[in-house]
Amino acid sequence: QGFNTLADAMLVNEYQSSSVESAKAKIEAKQKPDFTKTAPIIIWEETHNNTTSEVTTDDAMYIGTSYRFDSETGYYYLEDYGKLQYYTDISKEEYIAGNYYTCVGDKSWHPNHCTTMYKILSAEEYQNGETTSWQIKAYMYTQTEQESDKSDRGLYAIEDDYGTSYYYRGSVNNNYVSFAGFYWRIIRINGDGTIRLLYAGSSPNTDDLSIGTSPFNNQRNSPAYAGYMYGNIIDQSYEQNVTNEVDSTIKTRLDTWYEENIVDKNLESYIADSGFCNDRSLDSGNGVSTTAYTYFKGYRRYVNHTPSLICPQQNDLFTVNDADGNQDLTYPIGLITLDEMIFSGMSSGFLNRLVYTYSNSTFWLFTPLSYDASRKYIRIFNTARDGSVDNNSATYNISIRPVINLASNVEIESGIGTANDPYVVKVT
Question: pLDDT tens for residues 217-237?
Answer without folding.
Answer: 999 999 999 999 999 999 999
